[in-house]
Amino acid sequence: MGLVEMIKLLTPQKPCFLAGTIRLVISLLLVSLLAACATQNEVYNKPQSRAQLVLASTKNLNIVAMDNVRFGNVGSFVRAEVDVRNRTRKNLSLQYKVEWRTEAGFSVSDMSSWHQLNLAPDEVRSLQSVAKVPEAWGFQLVVKEMVSEFE
Rounded mean pLDDT of 51-76? Predict the structure, then answer.
């Protein structure tokens, strides 16, 4: 069900004070959501999702996409594999790290290190990671563009 259908269901057919209030509240929520998009880190996918893509820079939004997420087990540890796709028409030099989380969303390992990833235009590359603790349930793939020392 789309937002318009939800508004129609919540809005009485006859004009009244309550209908105006509902429209105002919904409008304020939409403005809040748009303002949240201007933060430093952009998170894609639902917060409750087992796999999230976090762009650690607002310089170039939507430069990469995360697709085809797969989970498995290695003994009592979770293993994940994900495809990362360059959505641009230029070569990308990126850095990424995998941050494992519990089902409640808590970080289970701060030992993640940055890895280099170079992608040609429209190239897809598979990335794998195995959690270091059995409590891990999902992960955040944090991606940022490499910054030249001369910029």
Answer: 87
d(CA 25, CA 21): 6
Record the tokens describing residue 48, joined without a space: 């409750």
Q: The dihedral of CA 114, 133, 83, 1: what is its sign?
A: negative
Nearest to 95 by CA among 122, 83, 113: 113
- The span from the CA of 77 to the CA of 135, in Å, is 8
Residue 6: CB partners within 8 Å, gap ≥ 6?
none
pLDDT: is 24 or 99 the higher one? 99
pTM (predicted TM-score):
0.66
For 46-110, give the DSSP string: -TTSSEEEEES-SSSTTSEEEEEEEEEEETTEEEEEEEEEE-SSS-EEEEEEEEEE-TTS-B---
| CB-count burial class (<10 Å; 0-12, 13-18, 19+) for 73 | exposed
d(CA 132, CA 92): 29
State the pLDDT at residue 88: 92
- CA-wise closest residue to 135 among 112, 113, 104, 110: 104
